[in-house]
Design brief:
By secondary structure, this protein is α/β, with parallel strands linked by helices. Helix content is about 30%, strand content about 20%. Strands 3-2-1-4-5-6-7-9-8 form a 9-stranded mixed beta sheet, sandwiched between helices. Helix 5 (about 115-125) links the parallel strand 4 (about 105) and strand 5. Helix 1 (about 15-20) packs parallel to helix 3. This is Methylase.
């Protein structure tokens, strides 16, 4: 389905920073450094930004922006450049025969679908990945201050990452409104993601005295507290950015529809 198409420059900066910071090795070892930006919206600006950010990691990266709306694809053509192109398509990811992307970014694409349809889209997109490739799917707010995304390999979901502009964050559970479609309706008692966000809020509250030293210190302390009971990944340099990555099984739905 055609999305609303709303986007803005730098809206996806947090997920792009995570990709560059944590997936550089994936891009560097790829035989075919092909990346797909799926559902880029009415403006191709975030695809262009992704292209330039990934070029710092892999200078010969090739980025293909894919949109289901023919008018949006036509409007994007003036932004095409060597290594950057735009074409019409959907979850099937239309590429040259035999080519598979090493990475697919699909942000703010699945929110309008039913939960079962989102799971099916995950399955289809994973089947299009190159061996060892990665699908990054999630949502963010309109100006990119809050976002949540899942990293999936060909075998299935691996991690979920929560990212926020800390100065404007009241409590970690505020990020619940940006949960991906497969989790957004699962934030209820009895579901793992609800338990995780509640635990994060408690850790945040316990770390309140540290706000005198800055909101980053409070966030880091809350994350370190969570490590005792939750499979937190990463290290302090990433936490300082307002990120938290957790192994997917910790928040996976009790049952898939």
């Amino acid at each position: 389905m055609i999305t609303r198409g709303t986007t803005a420059p730098n809206r996806l900066r947090r997920v792009d920073r995570w990709i560059v910071g944590t997936q550089a090795a994936l891009l560097r070892r790829a035989t075919d450094p092909l990346v797909v930006d799926l559902g880029y919206g009415a403006s191709p600006v975030t695809t262009v930004e992704l292209f330039h950010r990934l070029r710092a990691v892999r200078p010969d990266v090739q980025v293909v922006g894919i949109e289901i709306d023919a008018d949006r694809v036509a409007a994007a053509q003036p932004y095409a450049a060597p290594g950057l192109e735009f074409r019409r398509g959907g979850f099937e990811i239309p590429l040259e025969r035999g080519r598979r992307p090493v990475l697919v970014r699909a942000l703010n694409v699945l929110r309008q679908y039913a939960e079962a349809e989102a799971w099916a889209a995950w399955d289809l997109l994973r089947s299009r990945l190159a061996p060892g490739g990665l699908l990054v799917e999630g949502t963010c707010d309109e100006i990119g201050r809050r976002g949540v995304w899942v990293a999936l390999g060909p075998e299935g979901p691996r991690t979920i990452t929560f990212a926020a502009h800390l100065a404007s964050l009241h409590r970690p559970s505020d990020l619940a409104e940006r949960l991906p479609k497969v989790l957004i309706h699962r934030n209820v008692p009895g579901e793992p993601v609800h338990a995780f966000l509640a635990a994060f809020d408690r850790a945040w509250a316990r770390a309140a005295p540290l706000r005198a030293f800055g909101v980053r210190q409070r966030w880091i302390a809350a994350v370190e507290s969570l490590r005792a009971d939750w499979p937190v990944q990463g290290r302090r340099p990433r936490w300082r950015l307002g990120e938290l990555t957790v192994a997917w099984p910790a928040v996976a739905p009790a049952a898939r529809p």
